[in-house]
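Could someone model adenosine monophosphate with this protein?
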Amino acid sequence: MSGPKTLGILGGGQLAQMMAQAAKPLGVDCVVYDPSPDACAKSVAHLVNGSFDNARQLRSFAELVDVITYEFENVPNETVDTLDGLRPIHPQPEALKVSSNRVTEKAFFESCGVPVGPYRAISGPESLRIARDELGLPGVLKSNSGGYDGKGQYTLHTDDELENALAQIGNTPFIYESFVNFTRELSVIACRTIDGITVTYPLAQNTHQHGILVRSDAPATVQMNMTEQAHSAAKRVGDTLNYVGVFAIELFDVGGELLANEMAPRVHNTGHWTIEGSNTSQFENHVRAVMGLPLGSTEPEGHSVMLNIIGEMPNPDILKGISGATLHGYGKAPRPGRKIGHITVNGPDRETCLGTAKQIQSGLRNTMPGGGVRP
Ligand code: AMP
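Reply:
Sure, complex below.
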């Protein structure tokens, strides 16, 4: 391969780990940068250990690589500023700004003509009361930045719950969203090249518990116009940001109309099924896009159901006698609410995969934040 050969990844978690695994067969080596000396991606990539405000260490990292990407969206501005101009950064950091603030993100979707549910920016108790009057209850109050996997979120059904929330939020910026009575949650994984070609994977149907993804089922059974809506949303978002690499848009299906909930400027948990379930995984296509290589096909191979392993690793015997199931352990220490692995069931059709997944799920002891155990 001519051209760039070494990819630097900010963040050394499981997403960087799976990216590095996909990069190897392409002849691309990965160097990951992470504040933790135990970052799990070090099992497959060279780790540069340093904090995100350590300019000297960041510059040494940049010297080792040809191109820089990231596996998480909360990359501090100062980190980007330090790296800016040293090496090409894909996707371009503007995408981080859009997605790191829920209000900016919703306004951005609207500016691209991508439909979203009703929302209001909240700057304090008074604006929350106004939002309640304008949008009504129930609603979802979410911290504007920093929250993920359902953290920093309150679903408000009653005025009492609203008053309780008011007492807790102080003057930090929040967003108040009308509660969307969706039929189901879907997501689209897209990948855009340096030349502006956008491809999308078939939609995944996602199930969350406690705000955490537990299952993705793909390709979701959807009408053709929903695939078109999702592709067109992804294309508009990618083109507007001049984006390079993989990104995900989480969608609410409201009777066939898709509303964008949020975007992730990175490879995404709802795309893990593509490792076994697609011609080219999201990780490989991300590496291809940011390294300037042609993309691989996003055609599905049969049907896939991905189950997250949360908090506690199952006994590997859980898959004994089951065909078409692959266990991915990330090598992370178990902790309630922490994603430490996943299992993908791949087979000829949805029925078969869901049956197998159900069988496996009964043996999983996913421990959620707060210690609750969910099957
Ligand atoms: P988020 O952090 O925005 O991805 O929210 C986590 C989960 O909370 C989503 O996957 C939905 O299940 C639920 N949720 C978020 N926003 C809303 C909303 N406006 N209406 C109904 N459910 C929501």
